[in-house]
Amino acid sequence: MTTETNPGAGTLRTPRLLLRPWLPSDLEPFAALNADPQVMEHFPAVLSREESDAFATASNEAISRQGWGRWALEVIETGEFIGFTGLHRPTFEAPFMPATEIAWRLGRRSWGQGYATEAARAALGFAFDHLGLDEVVSFTATVNLRSSAVMRRLGMTHDPAGDFDHPALPPGHRLRRHVLYRLSATDWRERYGAQAAARHTGAGTDA
Ligand SMILES: CC(C)(COP(=O)(O)OP(=O)(O)OC[C@H]1O[C@@H](n2cnc3c(N)ncnc32)[C@H](O)[C@@H]1OP(=O)(O)O)[C@@H](O)C(=O)NCCC(=O)NCCS
């Protein structure tokens, strides 16, 4: 890992999870989950160790630079690294750009426990209450039902008019068609309220 981590800076906390900068010890378990065909079912391919490390390093550099990004997820009780959740500004061309997206990827053993939704609520609270964003989007391959279920649990709304063909994938590719979900700051505040969001997620920030 080329980036120094600064524990405390750029860290969010929920009742069960830390969203924190990446540590060198995360790289091996992250490479293992990125090499798991079930985790990567809705991506074009599994990642090599080099690709996995590059993703972690880029994510960590963004957190170091701006205080937020795709945070490493740690289970507080066990100290286990389980994947990432966080905010990112995609660079590909699409009608809804520029936008800030929320994204997640967890190892299989950590599915089915509400971790992605819990972490994402903290990240959304940060996006709206600390960054002052007007909107956060999320998108995934149409067939990735587990991911769109997280979006709906978060109160995001499917915008069928925003659905798009991912420009990185060729015509006819099984993952090309993507759904677009949106969440406005207004809808977020109506659903949780700034204070309620902090209470609901237990999210705190040292950023
Ligand atoms: C997408 C992904 C993060 C979703 O994970 P998930 O575990 O299904 O989602 P959550 O963490 O929100 O957990 C919700 C589930 O935990 C259950 N759950 C158990 N304990 C819970 C608790 N204490 N609180 C909340 N939910 C809990 C819920 O009932 C729900 O179960 P269900 O799937 O049977 O309906 C995961 O499948 C993944 O990493 N996939 C691979 C990567 C990927 O595709 N990323 C998205 C690309 S755009």
Question: What is the number of E strands?
Answer: 10
Major sheet summary line: 6 strands, antiparallel
- Note the beta-strand portion: 15-25%
Supply the helix-strand structural class: alpha+beta
CATH architecture descriptor text: 3-Layer(aba) Sandwich
Overall geometric form: globular
Regions with little confidence, pLDDT below 50 for 5+ residues:
2-7, 199-207
* CATH topology name: Aminopeptidase
Alpha-carbon distance between the termini?
A: 21 Å
Indicate the radius of gyration in whole angstroms: 16 Å
Order of helices and strands: EEHHEEEHEHEEEHHE
Specify the CATH class. Answer: Alpha Beta
Small molecules (ligands, ions, cofactors) in the structure: coenzyme A
Strand order of the largest sheet: 5-4-3-2-1-10
Q: What share of the residues lie within helices?
A: 25-40%
CATH superfamily: Gcn5-related N-acetyltransferase (GNAT)
Mean pLDDT across residues: 91
Number of helices: 6
Provide the number of structural domains: 1
